Automatic annotation (TrEMBL):
Matching InterPro entries: VTC_domain, VTC_sf
Top-rank lineage group of the source organism: Bacteria
Coiled-coil features, chain-numbered ranges: none
Protein name (database record): VTC domain-containing protein
GO biological process: polyphosphate biosynthetic process
Species per Swiss-Prot/TrEMBL record: Runella aurantiaca
A UniProt-annotated Pfam family: VTC
Cleavable signal peptide: none
VTC domain location: 25-225
Amino acid sequence: MNLPLLNDLRGIAMDKKASIQFIDRIDARYLFDKTHLEEIIQKIRPHYQLMHFEGKRLFQYDTLYFDTPERLFYYQHLAGKLNRYKIRSCRQVETNEQYFELKSRNNKSFTRIQRIRLDDLSEDISGNGRQLLLQNIPIDVSSLEPAVWVYYHRTMLVNPETSERVTFDLNVWFRWRSKSVAYPNLVIADVQQEKGSVSLFKNLMKEKEIREGGISKYCLGLASVEPTLKANAIKPILTRINQFNKC
């Protein structure tokens, strides 16, 4: 996939990403229709640079999420429970980087990510990935099972003056067994900035009357491929996202 509007943005090598760190970080998420994307990028292009790897500016991610048969993590997330987990395997296609990841959030809203490299993605949790979970979660690891595949393309912009990062996730689609649901017109924008810094992107979202707020790709994916799951807490967001698909 190619987006011509990305070609005019100044580039910054992907290996510079590791040097961008925040001591006290603020995250924000926005959902909007893809028809707004070109105008948004045109307005922020003087202030942001685009991450690239060997000339590529758009990157494909294939992610497999795990949960219990009762979908414990899904319901904890919908309920806003602070002590919760996300467990996933991920492949970044262009760089061929593959890893297993445990993301935990405690009751002080602190998020910790632990990651180990994988030789290949699997629908089983074994080896170092299993050991990571055994040492860090109070859940029977043998009860975990693959729940949903999540696929998307991502592009990342950086404001070199503030180190603010903005990612756009595009062409989001979900699959589990024979069930597949795509959201081709949905854009998921995530902002990471230093606490107290000014975000030109967030100011633009306010100007365009695009409200902050969203949904995790895991919850959206699971609600999409398992429509029998309870989803009252996210029903307004699901309704708005489905409106994008009708455009």
